[in-house]
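Input record, target 12 of the design panel.
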């Protein structure tokens, strides 16, 4: 029994040894497998997932943003800059981080400044660089705020910002685009205004051409990146860099002459005040091309100022947005139609009574008189309503209506300015019997001062109306100049008719006993001038009828009449009684002759007979 037990004991020992060997082998195999898996995982991570993990890490610490394109400039016809972008910087800081890091540094090394001492040092330096626009205490107060991020101070120029950030890397400087208007309010009603937007970091047009041409001016943004603190979107100062450069916007060349625009704005504003008017507008057109050399209103604004200071009247552009009843300047349509259709000659005498009945309305002249023997030239020169209506009845409603359309009344000119009004002409099928007693003398229809000037541009340009335009060309970022196509011209009357009517209109400014026109104040010494006055009653809103005390005063003229270069259109809103726009025309026309060195007329305009004895 003892031997059997011994044998069993030896078998158990061999079995344990064998089992131990097997476990060791299995363990080694498992270890090898684990090592292989670990190595495979390492290879997978480093070889196949490296880029993805790197990109993920980069996304966590890098912020991508737009690199705003430089906005295009506005130029006048001589290349003078009227609006452009400049670069400025907005200072910012991470105050709580600054306090923490400087306190920790001081605790480790008492020789280093405390956070308070460091903030004072920064505040003194920034104040010394920026000046009184940014007091030292204001900087210190910002840096002491318990906040993660804060912009502070006014915009500073690039060099100043660089000096600050190089001296104190804890201060950041963020790009801002500033829209500059070197001519101040000159052409502000045309150009409008633009401002930098915090939303997308771009300058965006708010008003005028800045707004309507925003796409042309804006260009295409690039891409920039910056490092941010882990777990936040706070930009680490000094880490900004550009990945894809932006493409600048195109420049826009305007047809206006900024010197002339300045003069017209100044003189219009002065004369509106002198005449006791509520407002006024003026436009100067090239007689041949229809290009707008100046377009002004008596009220304007500073596009570089705070928008909260802008008034609705200042930022509006009534020269193209606000129509009015033109009065007697509209008589040129009847005159042109009568001459074009051979109904009358300038020297033909009309027996003009003191009033005329049209349907159920009785219309008189501006002055009481019996029957007057007026030449047709005299009907224009003395601005007789009765004589005009007598000839309009010969012309007929249909031919008159056709000419209204050809002269561009009741439709937009197509000028590139936003908010243009077409004015108003009653549809032909809605005319009543008395309508034709109003339209030929400029009541019952409305137009803008730009449309009014366009009518006389057709007379000055041999009977061809060229719709006005404001934009001369687009200048691409590579310098390529792309001219705007000229508008399609419209033949209104024959050259012979246009010459005849233009010569008749010279009578308006002549001054002679019994042959005096309505506006000798518009005459310019040494030059033949053609033009027409207008006075139209305003609507009295309290009764819906024509006012007996308020009116629009208008004038449209050609400089000079013997070789037309410019057309000037003027409107005064409710001037004091007896105040005409003619003296203002004289001042603007005189400036035009000097600025453009227009030669004197070869001879004075011949005296025309307005009233026979």
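The sequence produced for target 12 reads:
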């Amino acid at each position: 029994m003892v031997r059997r037990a011994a044998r069993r004991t030896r078998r158990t020992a061999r079995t344990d040894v064998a089992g131990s060997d097997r476990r060791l082998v299995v363990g080694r195999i498992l270890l090898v497998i684990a090592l292989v898996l670990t190595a495979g995982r390492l290879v997978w991570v480093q070889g196949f997932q490296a880029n993805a993990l790197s990109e993920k890490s980069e996304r966590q610490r890098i912020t991508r943003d737009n690199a705003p394109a430089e906005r295009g400039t506005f130029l006048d016809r001589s290349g003078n800059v009227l609006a452009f972008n400049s670069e400025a910087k907005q200072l910012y800081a991470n105050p709580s981080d600054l306090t923490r890091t400087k306190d920790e540094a001081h605790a480790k090394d008492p020789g280093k400044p405390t956070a308070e001492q460091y903030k004072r040092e920064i505040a003194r330096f920034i104040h010394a660089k920026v000046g009184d626009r940014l007091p030292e205490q204001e900087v210190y107060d910002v840096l002491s705020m318990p906040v993660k991020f804060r912009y502070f101070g006014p915009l500073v120029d690039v060099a100043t910002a660089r000096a600050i950030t190089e001296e104190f890397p804890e201060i950041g400087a963020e790009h801002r685009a500033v829209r500059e208007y070197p001519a101040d309010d000159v052409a502000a009603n045309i150009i409008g205004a633009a401002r930098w937007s915090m939303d997308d970091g771009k300058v965006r047009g708010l008003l005028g051409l800045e707004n309507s041409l925003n796409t042309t001016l804006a260009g295409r943004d690039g891409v920039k990146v910056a490092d941010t603190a882990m777990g936040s979107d706070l930009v680490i100062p000094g880490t900004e860099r550009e990945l894809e450069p932006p493409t600048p916007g195109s420049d826009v060349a305007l047809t206006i002459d900024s010197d002339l625009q300045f003069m017209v704005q100044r003189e219009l504003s002065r004369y509106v005040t002198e005449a006791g008017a509520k407002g006024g507008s003026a436009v100067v057109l090239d007689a041949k091309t229809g290009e707008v050399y100046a377009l002004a209103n008596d009220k304007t604004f500073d596009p570089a100022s705070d928008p909260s200071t802008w008034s609705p009247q200042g930022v509006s552009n009534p020269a193209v947005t606000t129509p009015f009843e033109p009065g007697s300047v509209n008589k040129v349509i009847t005159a042109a139609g009568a001459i074009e259709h051979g109904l009358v000659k300038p020297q033909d005498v009309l027996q003009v009574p003191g009033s005329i009945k049209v349907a159920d309305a009785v219309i008189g002249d501006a002055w009481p008189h019996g029957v007057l023997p007026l030449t047709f030239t005299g009907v224009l020169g003395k601005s007789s309503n009765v004589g005009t209506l007598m000839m309009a009845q010969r012309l007929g409603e249909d031919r008159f209506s056709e000419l209204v359309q050809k002269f561009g009344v009741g439709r937009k000119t197509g000028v590139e300015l936003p908010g243009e009004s077409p004015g108003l002409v009653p549809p032909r099928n809605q005319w009543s019997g008395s309508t034709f007693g109003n339209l030929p003398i400029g009541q019952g229809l409305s137009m803008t001062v730009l449309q009014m000037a366009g009518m006389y541009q057709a007379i000055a340009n041999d009977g061809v109306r060229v719709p006005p335009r404001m934009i001369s060309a687009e200048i691409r970022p590579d310098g390529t100049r792309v001219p705007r196509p000229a508008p399609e011209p419209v033949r209104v009357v024959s050259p012979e008719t246009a010459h005849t009517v233009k010569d008749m209109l010279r009578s308006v400014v002549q001054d002679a006993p019994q042959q005096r026109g309505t506006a000798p104040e518009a005459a310019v010494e040494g030059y033949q001038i053609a033009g027409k006055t207008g006075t139209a009653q305003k609507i009295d809103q309290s009764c819906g009828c024509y006012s007996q005390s308020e009116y629009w005063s208008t004038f449209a003229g050609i400089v000079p009449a013997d070789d037309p270069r410019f057309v000037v259109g003027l409107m005064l809103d409710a001037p004091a009684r007896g105040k005409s726009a003619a003296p203002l025309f004289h001042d603007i026309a005189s400036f035009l002759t000097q600025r453009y060195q227009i030669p004197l007329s070869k001879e004075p305009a011949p005296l025309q007979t307005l009233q026979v004895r």
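The longest helix spans residues 2-48.
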